[in-house]
Amino acid sequence: MARHVDPVQDRLRRAALEQAAYQAIFEYGFASVTLGDIAARAGVSKGTLAYHFGSKEELLAAVMRRFVRTVTATTRRALRLADGPEAKLQAYVDNQFYGVLNTRRFYTVSLDLLSAAARSEALMAVQRGFMAANLSLDTELAALGAGDQCQPNSLEARAWQLRALVDGLSMRFLSDPVPDLERYRRICLTGLRAVLWPRSDGIQEG
Questions:
Q1: What is the pTM of this model?
Q2: For the chain, is the Cβ count within 10 Å smaller at the N or the C terminus?
Q3: Measured between alpha carbons, how far is 73 from 99 in angstroms, rounded to an integer?
Q4: Where are the alpha helices (DSSP H) in the chain?
Q5: What is the pLDDT at residue 56?
Q6: Nearest to 106 by CA among 189, 182, 171
Q7: How many Å apart are CA 180 and CA 206, to the nearest integer?
Q8: What is the pLDDT along the chain (206 residues), one digit of tens a residue?
Q9: Alpha-carbon separation of residue 22 from 26, 43, 56, 180 (angstroms)
Q10: Is 80 exposed, middle or buried (0-12, 13-18, 19+ CB in 10 A)?
């Protein structure tokens, strides 16, 4: 008789396993972590991990898809709840640098994905999805500084500039032994203003 699987419980179990994998990848690094390490952290057998994900590569892909969705949805919701361009910028920055440990963990695991994706087409597809999600979010932010006559190409270019600023600061954050979270937020906010409103030295016109 076929085994009955409760879809709700199955999703909850997968989410718990992905969370455990995320923590283990951050602690050991994707190249070094084993399914045994992840299973031990999750309190399950390696067979359970294999049943749900098949391989370590497929597990990493699932982990990153989940956390990209979470970060993107959280940031977009914060932007839409914020009242006015300046508040939206602050909400965006707060979600890019969300606590010292959270920020370090997310960007460390993201770099692991990028490194592994350079040698795996399947993981590169996940990385491209990550880039597309970022571009959609960054374009929404870039529109805050766009005039009525702004062309789509220039809006996308502005979005790329915003992402380059965030990515650059995140790399510096990772190498900083004692990062000052508020300082990174201030520098990021100043840079975003300069990209969006260059004519007024980072102060919104109008």
A1: 0.82
A2: N
A3: 18
A4: 7-28, 35-42, 46-53, 56-81, 85-96, 100-117, 121-142, 152-175, 181-196
A5: 86
A6: 171
A7: 33
A8: 445 567 778 888 888 999 999 999 999 998 899 989 999 999 999 888 888 888 888 888 898 888 888 888 998 899 999 999 999 999 999 999 999 999 999 899 888 888 988 988 988 998 898 899 889 989 988 988 665 555 666 888 999 999 999 999 999 999 999 999 999 999 999 999 999 887 654 444 43
A9: 6, 14, 12, 24
A10: exposed
d(CA 27, CA 102): 13
Contact between residue 20 and residue 42 where contact means Cβ atoms under 8 Å apart = yes
Give me the residue label for tokens 């006559």. Answer: 149
Structure tokens at 20: 């455990």
At residue 47, what is the residue type? G
In total, the chain counts a number of residues equal to: 206
Taking the C-alpha atoms of residue 37 and residue 56, their distance in angstroms, rounded to an integer, is: 11
Structure tokens at 67: 């956390």
Indicate the DSSP class of residue 178.
S
